[in-house]
Amino acid sequence: MAVADQIKSINKELEGSPAKLIAVSKTKPNELIVEAYENGHRAFGENKVQELVDKSETLPKDIEWHMIGHLQRNKVKYIAPFVHLIHGVDTIKLLKEINKEGGKNDRVISCLLQVHIAEESTKFGFSENEIEEFLGSNQLDEFEHVNIIGLMGMATNTSDQTQVRREFAGLKSFFETLKSKYTHAHLNLSEISMGMSGDYQIAVEEGSTMVRIGSTIFGARNYPN
User: Fold this and answer.
1) Phi, psi dihedral angles at 94 (to 5 degrees)
2) Among 122, 139, 144, 141, which Cα is nearest to 70's?
3) Which end of the chain is less congested by CB atoms within 10 angstroms, N or C?
4) 160-194 pLDDT, tens per residue?
């Protein structure tokens, strides 16, 4: 099925839910992104900074670029001028760097705090306690160029759908807890980014507002030689 048809099919599935499709275009050529763009899609996700920068320079300027991969602090400066949303903020040090680069670019950069919800040590993210400790302190006052708009989580890579559902439900519950407990000018919780090609239906059922889907749209990932 063509890229445009896949996007149309997924968007039809998402009708009636708050979930927005982020088309994960990592490793994919510009032509496929253009095909999606020409059929009305604007939100694309990349997980490598250099690829994100290269694509942003050559593709239409009204694309919403989402940084969905693990972000190193020394690379924030390359995407700070244009990135729409950073999904995987997993340390306070990274958040400070984003704030600094946001200031240099006279921007407020939207971010999601990544929560470690999987039973896998290879996944990144804050613990719930770390986030509560951060939001309960006065540290947020320092982040004038950051807008924390929600949470992101990646479920365990398992065929056990009950476990995946439990992890997503836990993230939604934690999100609601934070919304009820904390208010701040730099904290505007409205988004939960959870769900990828293999588990997005469960994520949507559990309250996701953003699903990150790549292979279902674009086919298997292209790895460089």
Assistant:
1) -65, -40
2) 122
3) C
4) 999 999 999 999 999 999 999 999 999 999 999 99
